[in-house]
Amino acid sequence: MRIARRPFVAPRLKPRTRRRETVLLILVAIILTVGSVSLSATERVAAGQPILLVPADPRALAVYLGLLGAVHVAQIVAGRRTDQILLPAVGLLGGIGLLLMERLPQGLVSQDFGGTTLGLGQLQLAWLSIALVVIGVLAVAVRSDAWLRLYKYTWAAAGIGLLVLTVLFGVDVNGERLSLRIGPVSGQPSELLKVILVVFLAGYLSENRRLLVEEDTRVGPLRLPPLPYLAPMLAMLAMALGVVVIQHDLGAALLFFAVFLLLLYVATGRLSAVAIGLVLFIIGAAVLYRLVPTVQERVDIWLNPFADPTGAGYQIVQALHAFARGGIVGTGLGAGLPLIGGQLPIPAVETDFPFAALGEELGLAGILAILGLYFVVIERGLRIAAAAPDEFRAILAAGLSLVIGVQAFIIAAGNLKLIPLTGITLPFISYGGSSLLANAIVVGLLLAVSDRGAEAPPANS
Amino acid sequence: MDPTLATLWILRLLFLALIYAFLFGVVRVLIRDLRSASREGTVGLGRLVVVASPGDDPGVGAVFELDALTTIGRDVNNTVVVEDPFASAEHCVLSYRGRAWYVEDRLSTNGTFVNATLVDGTAALGFGDELQVGEVRFRLERGRSR
């Protein structure tokens, strides 16, 4: 009898099962298949054909689920002890987004690649695939966070540089200069900037936490946080906000400010800092309302969209109608969004209003479940933060998950006319390469930080 | 009822029901996870990990869970005993006050160092900082659930 030799494998590769993730991912595959079948059945009935119980676009579904599985298997093979809930939750959100993009008219967005024209669904699939690869690579390859924590000012400079480049050389889309075009690829740097901002804040706050907690600036009877130590952060924030406001990207400005305040509270536990931030926010909002016409317009639409239902208020009025048509369980995937004059009722539905589209087709039940999925992402992030071995990783994990949660809240609430509408994307669901890539980096970093076998934090010296 | 419409209804409701099944499954895992975390008792206040130790007592990699008041020195009555010729019998005290760690030098002969800076009296100590007693270097880490 021959003694079994060790098969030829790379050294130190210890596969480790991930049972929870496996079970949840199988459930995700079933859900997306059922959703896809439901979509194709609805479309066939609308076209007067008999129902066939097949997925709407089996190849796209197979590619997406295959890649999701590949990220799962890569982590098993590499023996990573990362969080097992995050990937299925994000995978389900991305899959629902994919179904929505397949269901919308494919001509909304199209791009030519050497003769073949890719429609909305195919482009979204391509971006989702790249996003999943990014998640997988970060989750498996990142074993140390030194490259993030040691170069925080470099990251901050890179982020600001990116924004300045956009202001100088950006391309105008819908009157807002948000996109940077390099060759055939264009992207929105503010999506990437949110990740950079969190990395910088985590680095700065973890280094100066004790100073921020213990020192005070006394103004009369008030005990305020130590202003000198806040200055670098405030400068970074002011630059980011300033450029963003010049670009009229109000959603990003709101997101940056909210995440800044939340992280300041997470790191220091000082409610006074948050209170000052809120006061500054109110003053800033009032000033912007006076000075910037866009802000004024957005707030006026928010207060009364029915003042001009066919003009300025058209988008939000149509979104409200869509929510109303959806009711409790929705019209079903593929059955909503009746065309008005050959066009979709809501302009920019694929980037800014996917929440309204899902509200119509999946109903209140559906969007509550989707909000639930975002809460799961936040919970995991905060749990990873609570279990992190040091402050940098704790603040980083909290910030990364809050950035997704706050962004989802801002755009969902904007769609519902709960707050003035600001054009940012719904994470993992909206169409858009920059958004999907930036959020993939966020999830990949969260997974890497959650790894209990990761390298110990470097010593401060 | 028209079988076509019935099929559509079933598919739609099945899709929603499955999403909720997923959420239910996830929430059950989360609750179990939180319960086990709370059953394990409160997370420790912090821990000292030995980074360098020429005399190998304590050895590199040894972990000391910290109490709110932890004494370090060569004397056997200390919470953390450091068998190092350059450490004093009663070398220093770590204390957890408010929500931060402090180290107080107990007039040790060779001094206590935080991140290679000599401690004069008392100094604050953050997670990730390095503490040197004699020739033994520790790193302060956040406590894990025991």
Salient structural properties:
heterodimer, A: three-stranded antiparallel beta sheet, 7 strands, globular, B: 146 residues, alpha+beta, six-stranded antiparallel beta sheet, 1 helix, rod-shaped
The total beta strand count of chain A reads 7
What is the distance, rounded to the nearest whole angstrom, between the alpha carbons of the first and last residues of chain A?
57 Å
Output the strand order for the largest sheet of chain A: 3-4-5
Total helical elements of chain A: 15
Main sheet characteristics of chain B: 6 strands, antiparallel
The oligomeric state of the chains shown is heterodimer
Structural class of chain B: alpha+beta
Q: Which ranges of chain A are low-confidence, i.e. pLDDT below 50, for 5 or more consecutive residues?
A: none
Give an overview of the whole structure.
The complex is a heterodimer of chains A (461) and B (146). Chain A has 461 residues and is mainly α. In chain A, 65% of the residues lie in helices and 5% in strands. In chain A, the strands form 3 sheets. In chain A, strands 3-4-5 form a 3-stranded antiparallel β-sheet, covered by helices on one side. Chain A has a two-stranded antiparallel ribbon with strand order 1-2. A two-stranded antiparallel ribbon of chain A has the order 6-7. The longest helix of chain A is centred in the last third of the chain and has 34 residues, at 354-387. Chain B is an alpha+beta fold. In chain B, 32% of the residues are buried. The longest helix of chain B has 37 residues, at 3-39.
Strand-helix topology:
The complex is a heterodimer of chains A (461) and B (146).
Chain A: H1 19-46, H2 58-78, H3 86-103, E1 111-113, E2 116-118, H4 120-141, H5 146-149, H6 152-169, E3 171-173, E4 176-182, E5 185-187, H7 189-214, E6 217-219, E7 222-224, H8 227-246, H9 250-268, H10 271-291, H11 293-303, H12 314-326, H13 354-387, H14 391-415, H15 433-450
Antiparallel strand pairs in A: 1-2, 3-4, 4-5, 6-7
Chain B: H1 3-39, E1 47-52, E2 63-65, E3 69-73, E4 80-81, E5 92-97, E6 100-105, E7 112-114, E8 117-118, E9 122-125, E10 130-133, E11 136-141
Parallel strand pairs in B: 3-4
Antiparallel strand pairs in B: 1-2, 1-11, 3-5, 5-6, 6-9, 7-8, 7-10, 10-11
